[in-house]
Structure formats: structure tokens, C-alpha cells
Amino acid sequence: MDNKKLYNIYNRKHLSEQLNSEKKDRFTCSFYRYVPLNNLQILRDDLYEKLSELNVLGRIYLAEEGINAQFSVPQNNWNQLKQIFDNEQSFRDVNIKKAIEEGKSFIKLKIMIKKEIVAWNLSNTEYNLSETGKHLDAKEFNEIIEKEDTILIDMRNSYESEVGKFRTAICPTSNRSKDLINEAKEILKGKENYNIAMYCTGGIRCEKASSHLIKKGFKNVFQLNGGIVEYSHQVKKQKIESKFIGKNFVFDDRLGERVTEDIIANCHLCNNKSDNHTNCKNDACHLLFITCNDCDKKLLGCCSLECKEIYQLPIEDQRKIRKQFSKRFKNKFRPRVQP
Fold this sequence. Notes:
The protein is of the alpha/beta class. The chain folds into three domains: 3-113, Alpha-Beta Plaits (2-Layer Sandwich); 134-238, Rhodanese-like domain (Oxidized Rhodanese, domain 1), CATH 3.40.250; 277-329, no CATH class. Helix content is 31%, strand content 19%. The protein has helices at residues 12-20, 40-53, 78-86, 138-144, 158-161, 177-188, 204-215, 227-238, 293-298, 305-311, 315-324, 326-329, and strands at 26-34, 57-63, 66-74, 97-98, 109-113, 134-136, 150-154, 164-166, 195-199, 220-224, 244-248, 257-258, 277-279, 288-290. The strands form four sheets. Strands 4-1-3-2-5 form a five-stranded mixed sheet, covered by helices on one side. The protein has a four-stranded parallel sheet with strand order 6-10-9-7. The longest helix has 14 residues, at 40-53. The protein is globular, with a radius of gyration of 21 Å.
């Protein structure tokens, strides 16, 4: 394949139009596996070529410690997709989880080589992935989090837990993944002999976090197998109570999957009940925030009157402002890349 075709070469408008013109339904999926990988550039290019041929869209991270993948695939290419990963020894029989709710999740394919697939800046001496927490299914997890000697901790960022969480969970206040693990350790300090139960979106963060805690001397560490995604599927299939309420935040264009009808968050602008995340339409800002329908309409999807005024300017003027005010907006919270 031509090297130019190993990367996306089209703009967002073209890609959106292309996706909107599709006639076939898609599955949105995710999986991870901690497994030693080498020859990452060769592996990356090979996967990009094969997945592109199946019209797979999404975001895949490769590192020496493994793979973290979120993507969508046309339903008629599902079996071929699974075969691609089964043909690669490192990914054979990997558990590919389908999304809780469907929607337009990705518009292009990106496969990137990273230092870590969970960016916590931990050295490989601080965890051993052959020793992780005990994996529990939905029923087992419901049982252990009801015990008095169990501490339940959410291993996600605060903007994720803001819209959905287990009722009794301790939720860290960190907005950035690199801060999360340190805050979690501070929360759990002195609790080494308690049952520590943890959960995250799909399981990948708990895998590393549980291993790290075990290294730090925690005795009884448990994790929700497959994360909130698998938990939600099991709850529906087995007709058991969901102790997770609200939405599951996801790192794609959907920005959330509804698990229960509970709305536990508020609009950041007017404080009315809402759990709809969006990114400010002013591209110089692009702030991630929660808005209600009324505020969304009034501000045209922007986070403030100032951003609305910029968004309504001709595109060339917006571009000039983006350059002029890039420093001003750079510290605003914009988590759109990696969980």
C-alpha cells in the first residue's frame, strides 16, 4: 500500500459526509490487551492497511506493553475484523466488547504508537501485570461492594464520574489521567487490609491500577471484569440490579452511553439537570462541558457568550482569532484524546 494511504489525508467535513452517506450499520467496539509487543511501526502499518480495507474507523494505541483499541466497523465486516486480530498471535481470542449504545462514534482511523497504553507515567518496576486484582462479573461485583469492609473506587477522571457512577463509589477529582493514579493512592492510604474494589470504562485502567496497588502492599484487590461496558451487558442479560447509575462516558464522538435513566449531573451554565457532554463549538476553546438543551440552543453549542460571538464570525476571522488567542484558551480543559 502507498505510504500516503497509511494515514488519513481527508478533512473532517469530507469524512463526516462520507460517514453520513453509508448505507450499512456499524458496531462500535473496544478491547485491550497487555501483551509484550515489538516492531511497533511494522505492526502499526500492517493493521492500518488491513483495517482500512474493512472501512474500520477509530483510535488504536500500540505500545511495548500492549494495545488499547476503540473503533467502529460495518456489521457485515465483523467476522473479517475478528479474523484479522485472531491471525495476530498477540491478539488471538481477544475479548472485543460491543458498545452499550450505538451512534456515530468515529469518522476516521488513527493508529498511534505510544509509550504507555494507559498514560500514568509508571515505570515497569511499579507494576507486574501477571499479578492483578481478582476479576469479578456483574453479580460478584454487586455482592462485594455491599460489604462493610469494601472500599469502592472509581478509576476514571472526574468528568467521567460526574455523569455516571456506582452509587457508593469514591470518585477522584482528577481531570487528567496522569494525576488519577496518585490521587487514588492517597485516597486508599492506610487501607491496605481492606477489600479494594475498582472499576473503569472497559477494564484497562483497573488492570494496571490493581497491579500497581498490589505492588504497594494492598492485600485484597478486586476489579470489575470488562468494566462498565461489560457490566451493563450482563445486567441486562441476567436481569439483575444495576448499581451503576447514569451514563458511561466514552472517548469518541458519542461522548456517552446511557446505562440507566438517572441523571446525576447538572448543566454547567444554568445548573439544571443534564448529563449531555459537548465540546465548545468555538474551536479556539473546544472546552468539554455539560449543557442542557436550552443553553445549547441559546449559545449555539458554545460555553459562553464570548465563544458564541467568535463562533458566529466568518471562518477566516475565526482562524485569526484561534491563532491570536491560542495561549488564552490553552489551559481550558479539553480531554478528547486518551482515557
